[in-house]
Design goal:
Elements lengths: L10 H13 L8 H18 L11 H12 L13
Length: 85
C-alpha cells in the first residue's frame, strides 16, 4: 500500500485511553471518561466523513454505533463486577 496515507483521526483520545489504562492497572472502569471522549470524537469523524471513512484509532462505524447504544443504557462495558462484598 505504498503512497496510501494512514488516517489517525482521534489519535490523542486513543492514546489517552492507553495512558489511563496503564496508570490504573488496566481497570477500564477508571477510564470511562477517556473512552467516552474517543467515542465522541469518532462519532463526529463519521458524521463528517461518512460511515465508510476509516481511522486506525476508531472502531468501525457499525461497532461504534453498538458501543454508543450500550453506553446510553448505562456504563455497561466499562464496569468491573465487584465480588466478595
Amino acid at each position: 500500500m505504498a503512497g496510501q496515507q494512514i488516517n489517525e483521526t482521534c489519535k490523542a483520545q486513543a492514546c489517552a485511553i492507553q495512558d489511563c489504562l496503564q496508570s490504573n492497572g488496566y481497570n477500564e472502569s477508571k477510564c470511562t471518561k477517556q473512552i467516552d471522549k474517543l467515542y465522541k470524537c469518532c462519532k463526529q469523524f463519521y458524521e463528517e466523513n461518512g460511515k465508510d471513512a476509516k481511522s486506525v484509532c476508531c472502531p468501525k462505524f457499525n461497532l461504534l454505533q453498538l458501543k454508543l447504544q450500550q453506553r446510553e443504557l448505562g456504563p455497561i462495558d466499562a464496569q468491573l463486577i465487584e465480588r466478595n462484598r
